[in-house]
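haha ok so turns out i had the wrong file open the whole time. this is the CORRECT one, sorry everyone. sequence first:
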Amino acid sequence: WYHPSWLVRRGFEPPGVYPLAKEILADGTATERAMLGDALQYLPDDILVKVDRAAMSVGLETRVPLLDPDVVELAWRLPLSTKIVGEVGKYPLRRLLARYVPTSLFERPKRGFAVPIAQWLRGPLRDWAESLLAERRLRQEGFLDASLIRQRWDGFLAGIRDWSSLLWNILMWQAWLEHYGTRS
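then structure:
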């Protein structure tokens, strides 16, 4: 960072992409405005935070060379038609990478870093989940539809449908409720 205040949110705008933001908002396409939103919000507030935390948790120092101000400014000045060709995004980067790396390593579907919640709920967390989703308990608390939740839980355990994301949200509510209780 060239100036410490760049690290402070709402400090002041560093040079580079930010002056271009006004141009993009005024004259850019919907796609360019969406990309700008990602660059200004999603990237610093989500993706970069996760990368930094994951790397630092194992003592790894990461650098983000593609976020060098000169590289960012160049990328924003490229016409959208050169960045997205057909349905292929990041086209210039893909062409450059193809010179040095077999395409089979990067021309493949995205793979996330999903947490194996379904596996955990059927395995080591099953007893914990069962206690939080007990029908009697849910009815006593009175906040959630006990029969519907039990139906989802039983269907999940039977392998009828993967309700793990929904159940995880309910379990987080139940764990919060157990910890903090109802205050009246």
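The chain has ten helices and no strands.
again sry for the mixup
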